[in-house]
Automatic annotation (TrEMBL):
The active site is at K189 (proton acceptor), E196 (proton donor). GO terms for molecular function: NADP binding; phosphogluconate dehydrogenase (decarboxylating) activity. Homodimer. NCBIfam families: gnd (TIGR00873), PRK09287.1 (NF006765). Belongs to the 6-phosphogluconate dehydrogenase family. The lineage of its organism: Bacteria, Pseudomonadati, Pseudomonadota, Alphaproteobacteria, Hyphomicrobiales. This is 6-phosphogluconate dehydrogenase, decarboxylating. It is an enzyme of class 1 (oxidoreductase). Keywords: Gluconate utilization, NADP, Oxidoreductase, Pentose shunt. InterPro entries: 6-PGluconate_DH-like_C_sf, 6PGD_dom2, 6PGDH_C, 6PGDH_Gnd/GntZ, 6PGDH_NADP-bd, 6PGdom_BS, NAD(P)-bd_dom_sf, Pgluconate_DH. Its EC number is 1.1.1.44. Residues 185-475 form the 6-phosphogluconate dehydrogenase C-terminal domain. Pathway: Carbohydrate degradation; pentose phosphate pathway; D-ribulose 5-phosphate from D-glucose 6-phosphate (oxidative stage): step 3/3.
Amino acid sequence: MEQRKIGIIGLGVMGQNLALNIAEKGFGVTVFDPWEEARAAFGTSLKKEAEAELSSRIMVADSLDTFLSALPSPRVILLMVKAGEPVDELIGKLKSTLVSGDVVVDGGNSHYEDTIRRQEELQKMGALYIGLGVSGGYEGARHGPSMMAGGDPAAYALMKPVFESIAASYDGVPCCAHVGLGGAGHFVKMVHNGIEYAIMQIVAEAYMVMRDVYHLDTTWCSRVFADWNEGPFGSYLMEIASTVLSQPDDLNKSGSLVEAILDVAEQKGTGRWSVEAALKYGMPSTTISEAVFARTMASQKNQRVKASKILPGPDSKTAVVDSMSLKALRDAVFASVIVAYAQGFALIREATEQEEWGVRLSEVAKVWRSGCIVRSKLLDTIVTTFDAEPDLINLLLSDFFVGLLADYQEDWRKNARLCAEHAVATPVMSAALTYYDGYRTERSSANLLQGLRDCFGAHTYRRTDCDGIFHTEWK
């Protein structure tokens, strides 16, 4: 039987497209799915591939035993199944067949703590485990994703030729890397998704300001995003915002499709995981948390409709739209995006310090420059910043971003006032500005908080003028 370089279990859209991508780069691939219908559908689709050579590099196994027999030693098995119990169930079936040196790669959106547990379980058997964050959606999987691997460096070394060949590239450099030990790969991917939540919400809030404050139609909004995307902070999400807003409604043959989409946002959980991680590691990742809660608020459609008829708001007229007002909105958007990146990288830094994963933030930024959802021109500057200052505790403290936010903050605050006056909710842009001001506050209000805690609960406090822990009998 002909042996194949790599095996893939799971023939959903991502698994199929990664198989095609790997085969296109010249590697032999054996694929398997427990569902006969999935195997049959993929086999049929292979016959439609324009290049017969591509199909010849892919073998669809009809059983798990056949799949395993087709792989050379050490076997490399990429799992592309739903996160959670399906991964554990599949690993349970593989355990009796794995031998020392075999490599299992989880390419799904698994929780990093599950990845750490699975690594430890397989390590006892001598098998190696990689938690692989894959970003870019189904298009990225087919033509070049961004990939963040965590786990044993020896396992990554075996996979490196495949990963580097199928990954997106930026200036000729593959957008994949072994980002760190343990659960680092899936943790970095999780935070990527948290930043994605935040930036998507910022873009949506900018659209809402244009729609509800300036009363611009979707065509105008699309043009504004397209114009911003041509600037120094262009990004994939800015680009597709313009695309989505310009899409006509083919069903009703009139208007923009986005106007016909129900304003109820869904989520799969990685944003919530990022918030939980921020709480665990003690990091104020407020743009991510507010983005998650914004989706929760959006899901309460019936309550919002009822509240809109009961709760009063200000009487406000349409604001004047001109180049200066749109510039103010643009600056508020860009400043908020900078804060979202800063909070995400700060969360990764804190986690890797506590867990001793050895993640280098410049390496993460390099991997994100192409192929992933949060790719943007800004990441070039972030790479340069962390290369020059690898121990920088927060992006906001670098000279470049200090100067940039100084230039933006007047418009940032102007936009916040405008939104408040017009009762337009911008939770993430507001949270970003509040974080900026909170982070630059030398003396906060927490002294009163500690006094209150000591007053009702005897939780004690520390003083500014001497060392020690104190408690007062408050009167």
